């Protein structure tokens, strides 16, 4: 049932199953669609919804719904895309938070503004991209970030945030943080601006891309080729949420000290690890989970993808509780064998 307050679109009792890529069942008591900054302010001015807690939703591709949210669900549907500026050293491109991320990657490439190709096929919306600082194949959103617009959910003011204010980290930003200065649940991102450096430089350091270079004999691929390689690699390893419910990687890759890494290598010489600039090491969580024998396994209707152990999947009709039960069992076995605590990547409600 949709009712309106001015132009505000308010719906009651909405199933969220189609609004989260894991396909988990949950109901929003109230769902509001916002298509502009003004819509967000209308919501804040609403006599009953204005002060209620809010859960901001994009495509729900990084969300585990373990129950019906108590908050008012705000679905961001701000659209639009444009070239803001073409300078000698950079193209600045802007997209509405409700646009599909992959469509923007493909569109910029079609327009002759390359630079996002390594981030092709990442599910989700433009507005969600900075929240978890999406990353793949050697590139993170922060490497192409110019600024974003957001509406403060307390004051209703529109603000523009730069990279430092967003506090980007590995699959992290100020929008996931609830401690001091954190903005989790406190603002709605409405527009994102990306900076695409000129001249374009390929990002090819990632192992899977090096393999493509070896396979094809093409050592200087153009942006379109890298885009196609990334799409092919992802299609081979990661399930399409339209076919199999999932949220991509379920856990972050854990970071350990050099000493911890040496200890683990002494016990498991094959462990996949990467040196970080600060002297610590990142371990492949997928490898750890795989080594504990989880690949292809199920618990209830939740399972571990058979081609990538870091991805949990919906085998059909799974509940959020089942997914969390499987996640906990995986965490316990990885802790038991390696002494490492895996941290979930998606937001859990
Ligand atoms: N591995 C295994 N067994 C597995 C899975 C992985 O042995 O079941 C090994 C692989 O052979 C490889 C290593 O672990 O040597 C790493 O695997 P992969 O290259 O597939 O990448 P990942 O570390 O598992 C990360 C991101 C992905 C991103 C890829 C490519 C995180 C949590 N995940 O995965 O991001 O697409 O690198 O850059 O950082 C996401 O965040 O949702 C996501 C899919």
Structural write-up:
With about 350 residues, this protein is α+β, with helices and mostly antiparallel strands. It has 9 helices and 21 strands. The chain has helices at about 35-45, 100-110, 130, 165, 205-215, 225-235, 260-265, 285-290, 320-340, and strands at about 1-5, 10-15, 25-35, 55, 65, 70-75, 80-85, 90-95, 135, 140, 145-150, 160, 185-195, 245-250, 255, 275, 280-285, 300, 300-305, 310-315, 345-349. The strands form 6 sheets. A 5-stranded mixed sheet has the order 1-2-3-6-4, with helices on one face. A hairpin with a 2-residue loop joins β9 and β10. The longest helix has 19 residues, at about 320-340. The protein is globular and about 60 Å long. The chain starts with a strand and ends with a strand. The model has no long low-confidence stretch (mean pLDDT about 95). The structure holds uridine-diphosphate-2(N-acetylglucosaminyl) butyric acid (EPU).
Topology of this protein?
Blueprint: E1 2-5, E2 8-15, E3 27-34, H1 37-45, E4 54-57, E5 63-64, E6 72-76, E7 81-86, E8 90-96, H2 101-111, H3 128-131, E9 135-136, E10 139-140, E11 145-152, E12 158-161, H4 163-166, E13 187-197, H5 207-216, H6 223-237, E14 246-249, E15 255-256, H7 258-267, E16 273-275, E17 281-283, H8 285-291, E18 298-299, E19 302-304, E20 311-314, H9 320-338, E21 347-348
Parallel strand pairs: 3-6, 4-6, 5-21
Antiparallel strand pairs: 1-2, 2-3, 7-8, 8-13, 9-10, 11-12, 11-13, 14-20, 15-17, 16-17, 18-19, 19-20
The structure holds uridine-diphosphate-2(N-acetylglucosaminyl) butyric acid.
The site of uridine-diphosphate-2(N-acetylglucosaminyl) butyric acid has 20 residues, from strand 14 and helix 8.
């Amino acid at each position: 049932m949709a009712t309106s307050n001015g132009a505000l679109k308010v719906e009651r009792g909405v199933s969220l199953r189609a609004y989260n890529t894991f396909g988990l069942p949950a109901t929003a008591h109230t769902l509001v669609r916002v298509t502009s900054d003004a819509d967000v302010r209308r919501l804040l001015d609403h006599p009953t919804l204005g002060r209620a807690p809010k859960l901001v939703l994009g495509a729900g591709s990084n969300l585990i719904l373990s129950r019906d949210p108590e908050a008012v669900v705000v679905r961001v549907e701000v659209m639009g895309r444009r070239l803001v500026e073409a300078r000698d050293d950079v193209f600045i491109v802007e997209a509405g938070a409700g646009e599909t991320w992959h469509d923007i990657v493909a569109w910029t490439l079609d327009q002759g503004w390359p630079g996002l190709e390594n981030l092709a096929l990442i599910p989700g919306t433009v507005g969600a991209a900075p929240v978890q600082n999406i990353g793949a194949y050697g590139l993170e959103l922060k490497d192409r970030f110019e600024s974003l617009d957001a509406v403060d959910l307390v004051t209703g003011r529109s603000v523009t945030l730069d990279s430092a204010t967003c506090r980007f980290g590995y699959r992290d930003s100020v929008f996931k943080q609830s401690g001091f200065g954190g903005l989790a649940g406190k603002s709605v991102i409405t527009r994102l601006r990306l900076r695409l450096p000129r001249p374009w430089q390929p990002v090819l350091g990632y192992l899977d891309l090096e393999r493509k270079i070896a396979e094809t004999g093409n050592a200087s691929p153009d942006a379109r080729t890298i885009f196609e390689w990334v799409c092919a690699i992802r299609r081979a390893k990661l399930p399409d949420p339209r076919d199999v419910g999932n949220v991509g990687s379920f856990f972050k890759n854990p970071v350990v000290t050099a000493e911890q890494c040496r200890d683990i290598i002494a016990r498991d010489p094959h462990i996949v690890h990467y040196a970080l600039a600060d002297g610590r090491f990142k371990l492949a969580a997928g490898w750890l989970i795989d080594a504990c024998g989880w690949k292809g396994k199920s618990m209830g209707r939740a399972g571990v993808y058979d081609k990538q152990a870091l991805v949990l999947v919906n085998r059909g009709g799974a509940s959020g509780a089942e997914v969390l039960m499987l996640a906990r069992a995986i965490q316990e076995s990885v802790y038991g064998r390696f002494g490492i605590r895996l941290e979930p990547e998606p937001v859990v409600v």
